[in-house]
Amino acid sequence: MVNAGLVERFAAAAREAGAEVLGVSGLNAAFSAVAGLLDKEKTKKVAASAAVQAAGGADRLLVSLPRNPQEFSQTRVSLVRADYGIAETGTLVRLDSDDGEKMLWTLAATCVCLLDRDRIVPDVESLAGVLSEHLSRPGTPGSQVSLVTGPSRTADIECQLTIGVQGPSRLVIILVAGARGGR
Amino acid sequence: MKPRDVDAALKAALQSFYESWSGKRATSFAGSDFEALRERLAKVRDAAIDDQEALLARFEEEARRHGSQVLRAEDGAEANRIILEILERHGAKTVVKSKSMVSEETGLNAALARHGVAARETDLGEWIVQLAGEAPTHMVMPAIHLTRAGVARIFAVRLGRKVVDDIPSLVRIAREELRHEILAAPAGLTGANALIAESGAVMLVTNEGNGRLVSSLPPVHIVLTTTEKVLPNTADALLLLRLLTRNATGQPVTSYVSFIAGPHRAAQYIVLLDNHRSELRTDPRFREVLRCIKCSACLNVCPVYQVVGGGVFSHVYMGGIGSLLTAWIHGLRESADLAGLCLGCHRCEEVCATKIPIGGLVAALRERLVRETGGRLWKRIALDGVLARPALQRGIFRAGRAARPAIQKEGYARGLPLWMKKYDRFRALPAPAKKSLTRLFHEDEAGRRRDAGGAKGPLTLFPGCLVQNIYPGVGLAAGRVLARLGYEVRLGPGGCCGFPAWNAGHTDAALRAFLAVFQVLEGEGPIITLCPTCTTMLARVGPELVRERRDRKPGGRRAAVPEVEELERCAGRVAAFSQFLACHEKGALERLLPGSGTAESIAYHDSCHHKYVLGASGASREILKMASGAEPAELPGAASCCGFAGVFSIDHAEVSEALLADRLAAVSAAGADVVALDCPGCLLQIRGGCARRGLKVEVRHTAEILDERLRDR
């Protein structure tokens, strides 16, 4: 059951943090939206994470997966999928991204992220148990959790907020309704 | 390291940062209970510090289980050696870094450079500062002292690139250069904002994303952090996060927060540095310092920091909290200059994320400094020799009054010796009053009797030394108001309460002065003070000093020291003038005050101890509103302190002058006829400053304003 209030709050907070937020119904519509974004960016290629490809439906996009950091660094648009959203702060939560995926989140100029509307929680504390369990998973190489809120930013020169200093300068969040009901 | 030059451009940058930060911070905490949150975090941090060894053992075990290597370093040199060995083992000639104050603490960059390893900063601010060959001036905003033009010059010279000096272009250049560095680097080094024992995970909080890049792109990731950062679990780390980002930058959360359990690529090393923190941990007086989460909120609100910045007010760590960390990490003597720069205004305590009583701890640090180094000679003479001897004090002021015709003009001192000029230049120093308060009070007795019959019983008015000798009119006014309200007003001792000595670290003198005053105060009824600093001394610091002394020397010279119950009873009777009235006499005042408002407009100056220690600003505003018929106006601006702070204005006349200049600018901007305040020290500073600048503003104590209004009727 999606709590519409949470979705609203998430979208408002994410926009406040400098992200763009779109809402679509179903994965099909989500990939159409991505295709639209690519057109606007005048590129056909998108570097998509394994999580996105596993969701299916990305086959109609021209998906590439860079092989090394240098190639990732040249990526114009990346497509990733978050595990949770945090309404209070407009934060995307990703559990355990592998090397390549982490680079997609951080090295591309524009990062597009899919988020299921029913995976939005009120605040970061609501995820304490999930995070704790995930990080405590035994064995090597261990686990990671990333919280990403808006594009990369700095205010280090004259305290002026400037976007895109190290990571993406554009973060687009596509909120997907009924993502798990198939395509 | 003495602050010779107050840099106007830096001051403007810091104050404008403060303005924007405080607004964002307030918004980010809106709807949440900051007091409850920081209370919880303080408890969590205290418990973790108590349990530190067990938590670290758990952290190490879990981190190793994930394949990380954990190494302990006793001191900075050992940490640097360990990191050098790691880099050599991996054949790394460069290491890219995200912001790490701990690496500044150990002098890592220089240590690596000596062995031919280049450490490259990747946080934009740190990178700029590194290119410029300077040290950071703020823990969160390292390059806050540089303008865009300055940054452009540094880029042009150091990078040999053509540079346009608009900020987006500068940031774009940084992005290209830094990304190139990070992609090529064989190793990356980060700090940690928390270590999570239950999972062996490291929490890393950044905005730019460089922490994320540095920790995940190079094959080797080194975490350099300190032992006190360990917390039991993720929930505790999230509580810390909630306060950290809001307090540090006013953001609900920063752009990137990473939890890393185990190596991302080839190898991860976690270097846990102690560097005397275990000594701090076992020191019952100072261990609270370890609660610090390095959010820097205390710096942002610090009046001195706002004027001189972290270049002057630092020894790696900055501000009042920096003096405390420095005393343990880099040695007691290294902390002396920093401890001396603290005004003791306690404003930092209002924003501290873990409720560290920074102001009180800095005073305690000064005591240690005096004990170990003897302190400065003039302070020994002034504080131990004069201040703690009421009879000598009286003699000096008597002599001053006798010499008055020769040394004063219109109430201000004249013909001062040359060495005193720098204290008199920016604010006219007052001459002693014609008559002491004791004398005036005696003369006025019949008038007070006439006003009321003393039906409410006895009340002691404690004037403090400035009111007793310089501003007796304030004491007289307060006496009249209280008599009118029905109290039988007695005048307490005119000697010093001992606070200036305590604040300067001369505890013995402070205790002597306090006890001399205390013995005369025994008896019945409220003790009303006209100075928030005296209130603080009589109600809190003095009794605490006696208690400490008892604990330290049980059985020693008992006769001279009052019993604890006696002390507490006396402390409980003490109240600041306006606080007492707001609490007990509002109804009576309403009946006595004229219904009409005043023609004069009033602005209110918050005295530091009145506001941050006693929490009495609201009471004063209430009383002034009743007296004048209108809400007193607020003085605008980032600065709050007038710069007096007793001995501080002598030790750091230049900073005192700069703070006063800001306050006077605020007074001018407010455009009020009267500036009301509740502290004779602020009265001295602001009235003297107005006199020097020819500002046509009356500066008056709340008691004077109230008395005048009652007589208006």
CATH superfamily of chain A: NagB/RpiA/CoA transferase-like
The N- to C-terminal Cα distance of chain A equals 19 Å
Structural class of chain B: alpha/beta
Indicate how many domains the architecture of chain B comprises.
Answer: 3
Overall geometry of chain A comes to: globular
Rg of chain A over CA atoms, rounded to whole Å, is 16 Å
Low-pLDDT residue spans of chain A: none
User: Biggest sheet of chain A, open or closed, and with what strands and sense?
Assistant: 6 strands, parallel
Write down how many β-strands of chain B occur, each being a DSSP E stretch of 2 or more residues.
22
Radius of gyration of chain B: 28 Å
Which strand-content bin applies to the residues of chain A? Answer: 25-35%
Instruction: Assign a percent range to the helix content of chain B.
Output: 55-70%
Structural class of chain A: alpha/beta
Overall geometry of chain B comes to elongated
Number of strands of chain A: 12
- Please report the number of helical segments of chain B: 38
Most strands sheet of chain B: 6 strands, parallel
Quick synopsis:
The complex is a heterodimer of chains A (183) and B (713). By secondary structure, chain A is α/β, with parallel strands linked by helices.
Characterize the structure shown.
The complex is a heterodimer of chains A (183) and B (713). Chain A has 183 residues and is of the alpha/beta class. Chain A has a single domain (4-181), classed as NagB/RpiA/CoA transferase-like (Rossmann fold, 3-Layer(aba) Sandwich). Chain A has 6 helices and 12 strands. Chain A has helices at residues 4-16, 26-40, 50-55, 69-73, 99-107, 128-135, and strands at residues 20-25, 45-48, 62-64, 77-81, 84-86, 91-95, 110-116, 120-121, 143-148, 153-154, 162-163, 170-177. In chain A, 52% of the residues are buried. The model of chain A has no long low-confidence stretch (mean pLDDT 88). Chain B is of the alpha/beta class. Helix content of chain B is 56%, strand content 12%. Chain B has 38 helices and 22 strands. In chain B, strands 1-10-7-4-2-3 form a 6-stranded parallel β-sheet, with helices on both faces. In chain B, helix 28 packs across helix 29 (532-552). Chain B is elongated, with a radius of gyration of 28 Å.
